[in-house]
User: What shape does this take?
Amino acid sequence: MLNFFIAALVVALAPGPDNLFVLAQSATHGAKAGFSVICGLCTGICVQTVLLIVGVSALIAASPVAFFVLQCCGAAYLLYLAYKSFQVRAGVVKLDAGAEGAGLPFRRLYLRGIIMNLTNPKAVLFALSFIPPAVDMSRDMSPSLQMVVLGAEFVTATFIVFGSIALLAGAVKKFMLNSPKANRNLNWFSGCVFIALAIALFAL
Assistant: This one.
């Protein structure tokens, strides 16, 4: 399954909602905050894998109503995050940044990652199109167990790539700790990213 792992690394590197989300959060709140979000996103991938195995993902993809509701939920959450980003004052951001992510607790950032992944209808379609085709029916391992392994490989690849993004964006954040204006601009950047991602959910 090495080929799948390499493909998963390439997919994680491609610009998409999840890595842009990690970039925005890490640049705004620091690398530790980014890793908190990554843990949530990886948990979401695990849940997506389970839903794929039991057939729920296929049902959602086949139901226009369910798919549209998921789109609306995802867009609404992203717009909420955009609103919160635009509401942060420069002075508040500066105080929070001093502890590199202390302004937002791990639990909240972790939940952001989970919700971001599970309310993304594109993640459902991606799981359906990416994991099942990699299952080798000639292997002694059952298809369900193979999908578990493939899901674990995808989580590992995602953590490696997204972790690198968080470290790089967090490094940029450190240089801006004493600049309220820069911190304010980062929050506005995050807000714009969230709005763009919300719109992109309907561009299917």
